[in-house]
Amino acid sequence: MKARWIVILLSCFSSTGLLAQEENTVVASGRVLNADTKEPLVARITYQSLPYGNRMGVINNSTFSFPLFDGERYSITVEATGYASAKYMIDPAEATDGKIVKDIELHHTTGNVSKKHSAGTVMRLDNLIFEQAKSKIDPSSYQELDLLVAMMNEHKSMVIQLEGHTDYAGDPAKNQKLSQQRVDEVKEYLVKKGISKERVKTKAFGGTMPLSHDNTPEARRLNRRVEVRILQN
Known about the structure:
By secondary structure, the protein is α/β, with parallel strands linked by helices. It has four helices and twelve strands. About 8% of the residues have low confidence.
């Protein structure tokens, strides 16, 4: 009888542990879309846990869904022939009801960053990722910055202004400082790649110019950005 009660208790603890693990697991999901037509686009979607890639997987489809375990952040890379690849970081801390839903739009390789822009045009570096609350650029962002370098090399008279934004949560002075540090890091990368420092201006806005005032993880992610303003072309 005693042995049977031990087995029952162990089973209960085991079931409770599994339920807790399931409750603590965040699921990331979304669609891959053609940025121009908004139609589904079959792509190669590679995801891996950060920083060491202990968990990883590959999905070949126009949709994706995978779990984020143990509170780890994940990087996701989306590639399709004829399109510029996209890289993002997914943070389980930004989940709502255990879910993160993100649609990813891919641009044709002749679009977005690589094409010529007139003075006054502003474009967002969607694939530029920084370490959380830091100014260090994640290596997965280098490809997008290299496209910006290529564009400036193609248009020798182009002058740009890098504009840094954070979300508006937290200390405004710290947000201002962080946004300045981030655009300074991007400028340093461009200069190291051969772009004259006189062609790259910087301006920091902190959290004063949010794209969204919603108090949601997606809105905060949208507000944390670096934009490129074409001053001269």
